[in-house]
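Batch job 17 of 40 flagged for manual review because the log was empty.
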Amino acid sequence: MALASLLILLTTAGYAVLCAVKPFAPCRKCSGTGVRTRRRAVTLCRRCHGDRARLRLGRRLLNDSRTIHAHGTRPHATDRKATPWQ
């Protein structure tokens, strides 16, 4: 049981390091080419919009958690207390 927990912890930590070092991964739909061929037409990939890479899921979660934390901790202009001279 402890070995399985350690393995899960190491795998999660390794993925977190991978997301920090290399946040983009090749698009799986177009295999990193940026274009898709449909019958006779060549179009841009709808998933990556021709960028050939997509943001990893772990990096997206990290960015969202940072945004949520920033919105919850930073004071906003509407949160200031009213002073007599305003």
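Reviewer: the log was empty due to a logging misconfiguration, but the result itself is present. Helices lie at 2-21, 57-73. Unflagging and moving on to job 18.
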